Amino acid sequence: MHLRVAFAAIVAASMGAAALQAAEPVPVPASRCLPAAVGVPADPGGPPRTFRYDEEYPAMSYSAAARANPVARLQERLARGDQKLEFAGNRGYLDSLLNALGIDASSQLLVYSKSSLQKALISPARPRALYFNDSTYIGWVQDSDQVEVATVDCDKGPVFYVFSNRQGESAPFKRETTRCLTCHDTVGLLGGGIPAFTVYSMPVDGDGGVFVNDNPVAVSDATPLAQRWAGWYVTGRHGSQMHLGNRSAATERQFHAAEPIASGNRDSVTGFFDARPYRTDKSDIVALLVFEHQAAVQTHLSRALFKSREFLARETPRAAGDTPLASLSPRMQVLYRRLLEPVVRSLLFVDAVSLADSIRSSSGFPAWFEAQGPRDAKGRSLRELDLRTRLFRYPLSYVVYSEAFDGLPRSARQYVYARLQDVLSGKEADAAFAHLTDQDRRAILEILIATKPEFAEWTAS
To answer: Mind listing the pLDDT tens digit for each residue in 23-37?
Structure first.
């Protein structure tokens, strides 16, 4: 999908609002990595015969059909006739596709940098709309007959599709690799990279063109708000905090000289362009913050999946995916520390910037996002937002529940569990985790034990 602005990842609809009423811990399966039926052609199209990932990461078989993801499962339902998509109005299948994948319109983000396969159709007057849940991300452009789709396959990691938005298409999904991975690979397919979900802040001119000499910023939890959202519309309230959204300029100098707060604290994109063709008139600041967090964590998980699978295949080829942590050699233990420590730190929001003022949504996204749970017996959830001094009330990422996390090899998950147990119990004294108060650690540990059965089993063993 040749995107500079990427997508990221679980299926949110599987945890309904009923979780809010739970009096007991909500049972969550140890893994929800469910493949589509083997007989379903999940990947029409596919990669070329010689594909770098197949050479560098043969254990991944990345070019083989990706069947353990929400898009493949939707394809299976469509092929069986169990589900149909409805074509309606100027958006075509978009609304029906979002409903089928459990993605709410309140997640809408609007990006106007020319950073897509379909860049000729994108401008500040006609931004690309992104919609997402915890596993699947959809990109829609006005008057295009294609919808961009990215999802997390718990066996393959990030995978990419193009959906045909033409009425009556019998096989609407086509797997994409090289075109998308030109930008969705950490080193642009030059070798040693992995498929990635990366969100960029890119200053643009009046037509949405990216300034050649202005380096884009790859956004993470550690990126100050003042450097975020160039090339994006931003709605919602952020007080005195500044950002680079909602603006364009003739030159780089003019772009950076503009007063950031003048274009901020807006409840709607009305006045910037005609928003009637879109699902809503929002590009929500809270959804943006969650989106960026997910993208960063999912990229760490993608690297961990590719590298750990390859390490294990070389050391214990007969039982690579099921090798317990305690059985790994000393050499593998060292490799795991280097590989998985970034995962632990991203899950625990190490280096995340603090909010200097309160953040407030105007789209309804927080209510939809938080309602998905799971919650413990006290009603607490890792999805609870703070939005006063930090993004989440309990700073351990809800991505720990995702198919992407569950798809890691057993030993890799156990390494992460062991490190989380050390940090949350207070055994780990590294200053990197000083942002976690004793109260934070106790609450997170209790929530995780109550809502992540595999972690509970690990702590009890």
So the answer is: 333 333 344 676 766
